């Protein structure tokens, strides 16, 4: 059994690759290395460098490796920046997903797990978001992920109406802040995510920053789900395995903690986990950042082996350890 992992050289994707290997499933990685890193791909894993919008490349790779499913993780993942770069965001996330589905249809690959986002909910008017919550994304990034989900559903319906076509099995996984590390070989290199921003600041002797303290939350800072990347990877592979076993799945699952943590609480955990004492600098809000998103993960817990195996202190400690295991990149 082999699965194609788009974006498999990235922070999340490379953890999914490792989770596949642990389950005895062969991963094939396609990544253009625009934000991923070749060294994040484990030795012995077949790697194809190329863009996810390249349908011919995807088709050729699927045929050559007898792929039975696609883990579609590649994409532009920065909600705040997407406000200033909507065309780029839609190109990467919408055209990329369409290319993946087109290549799958050409080859006859019938299973896809899509890396979506809790950003599709915008700013919910409930304390705990379930999969039935109306979608109302507030950034091009969130919009692009919702469109990706629509593409999967529309393609599945189209194939049902096509004589001789293989039905499409699809699952979209919605989550928000992914943190920590499951191995010292991989760390979050995003220039926009909270954990690497704080960690890089501490390594460079700068004071970490909080973007906005006037949100309608208990301490005025944004409240989010923070989930450990290894837990996330486990449930991605569980979705692939469930499809292979013929189990019935929902089209959408939240991979949510059920509890929110504020940015201020993350800063406190950073001080505990890194041994650095600091008082954060207070800055302006970032465009596209909702005040609160906390998701209910009960459905995923039932069907996809989803659970929070790591505390916030585990998340901080593992992220710090993985990053500081690579001191040469700061030179």
UniProtKB/TrEMBL annotation:
EC number(s) on file: 5.1.3.2
Pathway field of the UniProt record reads:
Carbohydrate metabolism; galactose metabolism
Domain NAD-dependent epimerase/dehydratase, chain residue ranges per copy: 3-256
Q: Return one Gene Ontology term, BP aspect.
A: galactose catabolic process via UDP-galactose, Leloir pathway
Reading the lineage from the top rank, the first entry is Bacteria
Q: Which SUPFAM superfamilies match?
A: NAD(P)-binding Rossmann-fold domains
Looking up Pfam families in the UniProt record yields: Epimerase
Q: Which cofactor does it need?
A: NAD(+)
Q: Which reaction does it catalyse?
A: UDP-alpha-D-glucose = UDP-alpha-D-galactose
* InterPro entries, sorted: Epimerase_deHydtase, NAD(P)-bd_dom_sf, UDP_G4E
- Keyword match NAD: yes
Q: Per UniProt, which keywords does this protein have?
A: Carbohydrate metabolism, Isomerase, NAD
Q: What's its top-level EC category?
A: isomerase
Molecular functions per Gene Ontology? UDP-glucose 4-epimerase activity
Q: What family is it from?
A: Belongs to the NAD(P)-dependent epimerase/dehydratase family.
PANTHER family, per the entry: UDP-ARABINOSE 4-EPIMERASE 1, UDP-GLUCOSE 4-EPIMERASE
The protein here is known as UDP-glucose 4-epimerase
Q: Which lineage do the record's taxonomy fields give for this organism?
A: Bacteria, Bacillati, Actinomycetota, Actinomycetes, Propionibacteriales
* Gene encoding the protein: galE
